[in-house]
């Protein structure tokens, strides 16, 4: 069977490619710009091209028909419309990576299923994902375009620590604050519920959908089953570092307002996503993916990530702007307490 992945070197797709590269039943192809060729496993075929250059892509794939085409970098409707033009009649299945942030915020019930309403007034990213889903499902209903929708939540790998509040350079500055004994901002009171999924666990669920006729025309959320509060998440990170945690709880609405002029979209990332309690019901996925479970719980995953980050300098990008912003937010709130 032949699989073509658009992208293939990101947090989610890297684990999928590695898993399939060890499966003799799959021939794996990637189409991307070749910027991270060093992490591509042996035996995986690479097409170096700009996916937006449709003529060049069609010339390079020729008359090949793929069993599965996976889209990992499609964020706006024009991008999935391009894929539709490229792969209509050239794939037996098109898997689109959407987002669990597309679910209504807040939902009527914290238990989330694939039938939960899609609506997110707080985050343009999520609204674009919803629009992509709607386009693809319309093509399925009207023309039989063989789409499968996948909605990940918070998936991570060894290169980054999952956090609620961080700056533009990722997780390192927060990790550094924990190591230095500085207060660390946690949204709300830290008691909202959240799922974290290591990318190799995600790959188990995703690959079970590939080539599966029962997945065509359907949406599936893929997450691990472990549910933690944000306080537990941050405490687990501190425990792995062997350091005391100094949490500083700040209302998500305050963070959204305080971060706006600095270019931090905490309205989208928090109010539209991480500040809301969610528990994902994965029974629909597990009917097709019997092996789907949490093999790497967070207390193990965070140690895998920390070991990698601490031994790879490129993963440790200082972010003095975010560090100073945290200090100012905390100082302003402490001052307001004294003035009341």
Characterise this structure:
With 340 residues, the protein is α/β, with parallel strands linked by helices. The chain folds into two domains: 2-155 and 197-222, NAD(P)-binding Rossmann-like Domain (Rossmann fold); 158-195 and 225-278 and 296-339, UDP-galactose 4-epimerase, domain 1, CATH 3.90.25.10. 40% of the residues lie in helices and 17% in strands. The chain contains twelve helices and 14 strands. It has helices at residues 11-21, 54-61, 77-87, 124-143, 172-179, 199-209, 230-241, 252-259, 266-274, 283-286, 298-311, 320-339, and strands at residues 2-6, 27-32, 45-48, 68-71, 94-97, 111-112, 147-152, 154-156, 184-187, 193-198, 219-222, 227-229, 247-250, 279-280. A seven-stranded parallel beta sheet has the order 3-2-1-4-5-7-11, with helices on both faces. Helix 1 links the parallel strand 1 and strand 2. It is globular, with a radius of gyration of 21 Å. The model has no long low-confidence stretch (mean pLDDT 96).
Please give a quick description of this structure.
With 340 residues, the protein is of the alpha/beta class. It is 40% helix and 17% strand.
């Amino acid at each position: 069977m032949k699989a073509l992945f658009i992208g293939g070197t990101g947090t989610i797709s890297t684990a999928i490619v590695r898993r399939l590269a060890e499966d003799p039943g799959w021939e794996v192809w990637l189409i991307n710009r070749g910027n991270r060729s060093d992490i591509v496993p042996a035996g995986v075929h690479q097409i170096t091209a700009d996916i937006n250059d449709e003529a060049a892509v069609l010339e390079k794939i020729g008359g090949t028909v793929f069993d599965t085409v996976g889209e990992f970098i499609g964020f706006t409707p024009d991008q999935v419309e391009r894929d539709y033009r490229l792969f209509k009649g050239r794939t037996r299945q098109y898997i689109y990576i959407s987002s669990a942030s597309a679910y209504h915020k807040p939902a009527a019930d914290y238990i989330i299923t694939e039938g939960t309403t899609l609506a997110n007034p707080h985050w343009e990213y999520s609204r674009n994902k919803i629009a992509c889903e709607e386009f693809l499902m319309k093509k399925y209903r009207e023309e039989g375009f063989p789409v499968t929708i996948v909605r990940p939540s918070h998936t991570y790998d060894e290169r980054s620590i999952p956090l609620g509040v961080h700056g533009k350079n990722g997780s390192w500055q927060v990790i550094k604050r924990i190591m230095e004994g500085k207060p660390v901002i946690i949204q709300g009171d830290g008691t909202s519920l959240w799922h974290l999924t290591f990318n190799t666990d995600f790959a188990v669920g995703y690959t079970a959908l590939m080539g599966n006729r029962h997945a065509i025309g359907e949406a599936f959320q893929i997450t691990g089953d472990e549910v933690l509060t944000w306080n537990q998440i941050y405490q687990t990170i501190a425990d792995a570092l062997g350091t005391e945690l100094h949490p500083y709880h700040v209302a998500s609405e305050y963070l959204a307002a305080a971060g706006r002029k600095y270019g931090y979209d905490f309205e989208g990332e928090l109010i539209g996503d991480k500040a809301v309690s969610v528990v994902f019901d994965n029974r629909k996925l597990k009917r097709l993916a019997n092996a789907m479970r949490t093999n790497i719980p967070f207390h193990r995953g965070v140690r895998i990530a920390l070991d990698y980050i601490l031994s790879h300098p490129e993963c440790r990008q200082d972010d003095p702007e975010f560090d100073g912003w945290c200090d100012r937010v905390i100082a302003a709130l402490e001052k307001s307490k004294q003035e009341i």
